[in-house]
Every structure is written in structure tokens, then in C-alpha cells.
Amino acid sequence: MVWGAAVALVVMAFACLWRTNAGPTLEDRILAVNVVGTKALITLVLLASIGGHGFLIDAAIVYGLLNFIITIAATRLIETGRLRGGTTS
Amino acid sequence: MTFPSLVGDAIGGALLLVGVVFLLGGTIGLIRLPDLYSRAHAASKCDTVGACSILAALLLLGAPGSAGLKIVLLALLVLASGPTTAHALARCAFRSGVAPVAKDGGEGP
Amino acid sequence: MRRARTSVALFAFWCIIVPPRGILDVAVGVATALTLSAWTSRFLWPQPDPFVSTLRLVRLPRFMLTMGAHIVVAASQVLWVVLDPRSRVAPVVVRHTVRFGAEGARVAFAHAITITPGTLALDVVGDTFVVHCLDERFGRAVSDGSLAREIERLFGASAGP
């Protein structure tokens, strides 16, 4: 059952990759990458549950944090053209 | 953290199924909806709920070792980051002038 | 004080990631937490401390539960829209002005908009919230002020129309 969920999630992640290729705007692509990241995170936790590998959950936490930070940094870069400095408005 | 009973397994399985259905909805929404803002709706809500549901299911089905606390932490992370990233992306697109598909013709920032 | 709180939070995070088995683990954890809190204090807390009263802390769990219920309803609604093959979304952008006393209330309101069914906060300019609605009927929950009252109840600040 858990295996089925993991396989379904991998298939969905590949389906989301289509949007990264087709998205008309840059933001579409970033959103799609973010969604793929969320699905990969859940897949990692499912794999950890199947095999009993606790370290995969640590990898999932790092994955989630990176996913969040990358998206915020990318939107900020698009919006202001720079990464350093004070907050906007 | 393990909850080795038939009821726990049944609830866990149901939550797993619900989570997969919500994530499927998020995926289809990402592919099917017409513009970035509508897609952000699907990505923020369906994915967050689906992910949290699957994490709760894994908590019920029994997590290895001390992983229960980590899974709770992960669920909080997903819950906080999902709507935030969607809002950040939507604001970024709105400020850079991506017009929403709207009945009133759309409007700029 | 702020740095101390950040250190404690970071150390708690460390204890979850690495369940400490000996004195060495604890020592490395404390050192990491102190270094990181010193390094991040530069950009993590540029503004003065927000005032968080005990009453708000008491009300926070109930608010989070309400929002949890909201997001499940919202996700079901989006699921319904997505999976119905005949549905055509007719998105509208509405502007809504609410005056909140506290800065935190505006942030909470923007998040609450994103979490309620069919609405997504696009931008906040001053007291005006630009909201994207999947359909016109979803926008009513925002504009009839029921959501603003919930936030107001949490923050105890005045929320005029």
C-alpha cells in the first residue's frame, strides 16, 4: 500500500515536470519545481517508512527547507534583482 | 509511536489514500488550470493538505525509531511553507505584471 | 534576549534531528546553536521585538485549529473545481481594505485569505489586500468581513471596515 503511494507520487512528480517545460512564465516553472520538490519530499518519507531507514527522513527535512528557501530566494531575485539588502516594502 | 492495531492501520490507510487523491488533484490542477494564479491555488492548498495527510498516515502506520517527532516537524514545515511560497510567487508575478485571466479583463499592479 | 530565544529554538531543533546520546552531542549542539544565533541575529530580527501578549498565546491554538479546518475545506473545494471536467474557472481580482492595529494582524489576515477556500492573497499595499478569487462567490467570505473579525478576535485590535 505504501509502495503504491510512493510509485503514484513519482508518476505525479514526472507529470508536474511537464509544466516546468511548458509554463509560459518563469513563475510557472518555479511553482512547478516547488511542487515537484514537495512530492519528492513525501516520496522520501514513504521510502524511509518502507525500508526503515531513519536517515531518509533527515534528508526529507533538508529537502523541505531547501525547497522553501530556493523558492523564496528565486522570487526575491526576480522581484528586486538582488538577493542581499533590506526587505521590500 | 507505533500504533499496531487494526483500527490504526485502517485509519492510516484511509489517510494515505486521501493524501494521494489530494496530491493528484494538485497535479491535475497544475497541469489543467488556465493561469499562474489559479495554479497557485491548486499547488498551495491541495499539496499542503495531501502532504500533511500522508505524513499523518505514516505516523499512524508506525514510524521507525525516533522518527515520529521528525515527521511532526516535517508536517509543520510543509504547512508553513506551502501557502507562503504560493503567496510569494503570486506576488512576484503580480508585481512584474503577469495579468490574471479574469472576467473583468485583468488589471496590472 | 532574542538571541537566547533563537539559541533555545535551534537547540531544540538539534535535539530532534540528532537525539543526543552523550555529552559530546550536547556540547556540539550548544556550540552550533550559539554560533548560528549569533550569526543570524544580524538579518533574522531587523525590527524590534513584536509584542506578544499571553492572551494571544492562549488564543493561538484555537486559531490554528480553525485555520486547519479552513484549509481542508479549501483543498476539497479546489479538488472539486479541478476534477469536474465541465467546470470553467472564472477568476476575479478584488481589492479589500481593512484597517488593523497590529502589523502581525495584517500578516495573519493575508495568510488566512490564502487558506480560506478559493482565495489567494496577491499583494498587500498599506491596508489594501489584493485578492485573487477562483470564482466570484469565493470572494464574498473575504469582503463580508467574517474573516477579518476572526483575526480581530485573535489580536484584540480594532478592525474597521
Describe this structure in words.
The complex is a heterotrimer of chains A (89), B (109) and C (161). Chain A is an all-alpha fold. Chain A has helices at residues 2-22, 26-51, 55-80. Chain A has one domain. Chain B has one domain. Chain C is 60% helix and 12% strand. Chain C has helices spanning 2-17, 23-44, 54-83, 103-115, 139-143, 146-155, and strands at residues 92-97, 119-125, 128-133. Chain C starts with a helix and ends in a 6-residue tail after the last helix. Mean pLDDT of chain C is 78; it is low at 157-161. The chains are: A mainly alpha (89), B mainly alpha (109), C mainly alpha (161). Chains in contact: A-B, A-C, B-C. Chains A and B meet through helix 1, helix 2 and helix 3 of A and helix 1, helix 2 and helix 3 of B.
Question: Based on CA inertia axes, which overall geometry of chain C fits?
Answer: elongated
Straight-line distance between termini of chain A: 48 Å
Cα-to-Cα separation, first versus last residue of chain C = 38 Å
Q: Count the domains of chain A.
A: 1
β-strand percent of chain A reads under 5%
> Portion of residues in helices of chain C?
55-70%
Helix/strand-derived category of chain A reads mainly alpha
Following the backbone from N to C, one meets helices and strands of chain A in this order, namely HHH
Q: Secondary structure elements and their pairing?
A:
The complex is a heterotrimer of chains A (89), B (109) and C (161).
Chain A: H1 2-22, H2 26-51, H3 55-80
Helix pairs in contact in A: 1-2, 2-3
Chain B: H1 6-32, H2 36-61, H3 67-95
Chain C: H1 2-17, H2 23-44, H3 54-83, E1 92-97, H4 103-115, E2 119-125, E3 128-133, H5 139-143, H6 146-155
Antiparallel strand pairs in C: 1-3, 2-3
Helix pairs in contact in C: 1-2, 3-6, 4-6
